[in-house]
């Protein structure tokens, strides 16, 4: 494979530390690299060095002449004065970008809820981030550097991005280097892993699962003294091999070696023992949500017709009996009602109809996204904060019970002795997140709600927190876009779809399939409604029925274009494999290819016409 980019003996120092000693790396055609490591060890800095955003103190980065390099930096910002269209496609004529299947797919995957002609400065932070990602992806790049691209994407968006990156280039074309804490995404898109630690970059073959195996083997062969870290990685490997069947069908590491390493490793959670403890702490009644609906009034505005609905139903006839020791992940798009459902559990939201019953011994705690629990401690040192808490915390039970001091818990969550004297307000985002979890656990709740708990945490810290939760004997409810975390710490998943709560025996994969089916069903319903004759309109705007019909046709054209694009690729492959001396056969294949391309051109023209109608 051809060489694209190389780094030779890179050395970089910041005023307080050496970031990289002498790092030598290379990227070839077809490279798909996932970058992992502790927060602050230099993952983002490495990407900036390789992309030419910053210069090393010594050493050099060389790129093949003419290659195109694109980068998504966490600090990149889109000009707030631009419209979304200007930011994404610039001055390119509409008939040019609209005729590109790749561009249409990107807009559908990332910006379906973003106003195309809206001002960037009026968007939310998450929407602006997605506009920046879309603007990068529509370009033609030989090498892509992506720094935390899954931030602000939901489960569907992350799955879309993984699919896009996997199909963006041919197998031996292009190169991708991505930094992310999303371990499912790493396993899905990367074929090699770079671990950044202690001033070096250590390469591993394979994605995240293979990387975990090799780290365990490395620690064992080196007789690592850090037994705690080694055992944690063994536990992670055991879950990867036992608890995620989808991964076992495509391992990039030696299965026999993996099985040997985890032969005596117990399951990650003793479910029977945890349930017994949960019942003893909670009793048999936790929270019962019975036929509960939540309806919010819609405030009237000047541009809304008098016939518009005055109420919005968020949840409809929800029945959920939460059991002691239940571990449930909750899935749903933004705005589906996840926070409302959790509000019913905690009592922050009252049902419009139906009722909610709570057990008398229930103590609920929430790990929120806002870090509100730390506000009162902002000027205190970490050691002073934990000194005011209870003196010990017991994890496990029976002969496996271990009593830890708050300091030992902090150490288990990655805090060093030096950090104990740091004021809370000076901690990093990830450190604040871990301290927040510690303070909540020391309150000994028996129902714990985690609301997007993976923010600001690296993969090692996520594994440490998951390990801690494995021995926590209570009811656990998790809302997260992190698919790996959902599958790792919960035993059951629920989805909120159109205001209804649905059980997901098939897990996250079933949720994605239901979402696709729901979109198709809504399109079909729009088609039925559009069959009623529409009255001629003197205005350029479409009537409701006409708009629904146009949207249905646009979706149909998109699907047909995607299918034809696949047929064109297959036809090119047939031409390449056909006997080149068979001129008659080649002519027939060429005619078939021309017919397919003509069909695509016709459909692209229709796509433009319908798009203009919708915009009008």
UniProtKB/TrEMBL annotation:
Record flagged with keyword Nucleotide-binding: yes
Single GO term (MF): ATP hydrolysis activity
Origin: domain of life: Bacteria
Coiled coil: 547-606
Region (Disordered): 527-546
Signal peptide coordinates: none
Name recorded for this polypeptide: ABC transporter ATP-binding protein
Annotated Gene3D superfamilies: P-loop containing nucleotide triphosphate hydrolases
Record keywords: ATP-binding, Coiled coil, Nucleotide-binding
SMART domains: AAA
Pfam family, one: ABC_tran_Xtn
Residue stretches of biased makeup (Polar residues): 527-541
Boundaries of every ABC transporter domain copy: 5-223, 299-523
PROSITE patterns: ABC_TRANSPORTER_1 (PS00211), ABC_TRANSPORTER_2 (PS50893)
